[in-house]
């Protein structure tokens, strides 16, 4: 650290000037970067509108003593030459894509592919459902033609049950009304066959 008062003051002044110079140089760099970015994207109208702004920032740096006037003039002429070459067609601009834009485009394409796949699967399921519904209606119509529809089957079932229940009652009534047959004898002697002699006679 300096010990003399004037040297201490000079340190503070230099710090202020360095800060001011950094502000102006950062502004200059950003404007030049915008200009080159417009040319890289092949947006000539934007580049033409930015050129006077770049010139004014260069001139301000020269007046503040940050840049030498010849250095500023050379840089301005280089920017103007690049713009004129692009306009005249001497230099062809190939649009450059950074990694961020490439990743965004890939993500967009993947999303579109997913959406189309979902739409197709949804359409396929709807078609399957429609086909199943058509088949069911066709089977119902066929059953209706042959008289075996679901409503008739339901109506016939209770009647059949009623008949089955009524049958045992009628059988009991018939058993009561019919007279009982006479009982058969337990055993009857067998008649001897012709040509044989009974055991008693012998």
The CATH architecture term of the largest domain is: Up-down Bundle
Global structural class: mainly alpha
Mean pLDDT: 80
Q: Helix count, per DSSP?
A: 5
Strand content: under 5%
H and E string: HHHHH
The oligomeric state of the chains shown is single chain
CATH class of the largest domain: Mainly Alpha
What summary fits the major beta sheet?
none
Q: What is the number of domains?
A: 2
**Low-pLDDT segments, ≥5 res:** 197-202
Q: What is the radius of gyration computed over CA atoms, rounded to a whole number of angstroms?
A: 57 Å
Helix content: over 70%
CATH superfamily label of the largest domain: Ribosomal protein S20
Number of strands: 0
Q: Looking at CATH, which topology of the largest domain would you report?
A: Methane Monooxygenase Hydroxylase, Chain G, domain 1
Euclidean distance between termini CA atoms = 171 Å
Shape: elongated
Model description:
The protein is an all-alpha fold and 202 residues long. The protein folds into 2 domains: 84 residues, Methane Monooxygenase Hydroxylase, Chain G, domain 1, CATH 1.20.58; 69 residues. 76% of the residues lie in helices and 0% in strands. Helix 1 runs antiparallel to helix 2 and helix 2 runs antiparallel to helix 3.
Q: Which features would summarize this protein structure in a list?
A:
202 residues; mainly alpha; Methane Monooxygenase Hydroxylase, Chain G, domain 1; 76% helix; elongated; disordered C terminus
């Amino acid at each position: 650290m300096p010990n003399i008062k004037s040297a201490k003051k000079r340190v503070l002044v230099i710090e202020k000037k360095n800060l001011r110079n950094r502000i102006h140089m950062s502004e200059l760099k950003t404007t030049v970067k915008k200009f080159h970015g417009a040319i890289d994207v092949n947006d000539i109208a934007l580049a033409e509108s930015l050129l006077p702004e770049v010139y004014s920032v260069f001139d301000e740096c020269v007046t503040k003593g940050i840049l030498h006037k010849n250095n500023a003039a050379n840089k301005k002429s280089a920017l103007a030459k690049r713009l004129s070459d692009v306009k005249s067609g001497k230099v062809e601009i190939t649009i450059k894509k950074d990694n961020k834009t490439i990743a965004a485009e890939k993500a967009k394409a993947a999303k579109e592919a997913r959406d189309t796949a979902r739409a197709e699967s949804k359409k396929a399921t709807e078609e399957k459902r429609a086909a199943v519904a058509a088949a069911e209606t066709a089977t119902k119509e066929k059953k209706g033609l042959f008289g075996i529809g679901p409503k008739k089957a339901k109506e016939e079932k209770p009647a059949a049950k009623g008949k089955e229940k009524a049958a045992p009652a009628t059988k009991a009534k018939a058993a009561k009304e019919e007279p009982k047959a006479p009982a058969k004898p337990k055993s009857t002697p067998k008649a001897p066959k012709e040509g044989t002699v009974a055991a008693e006679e012998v």
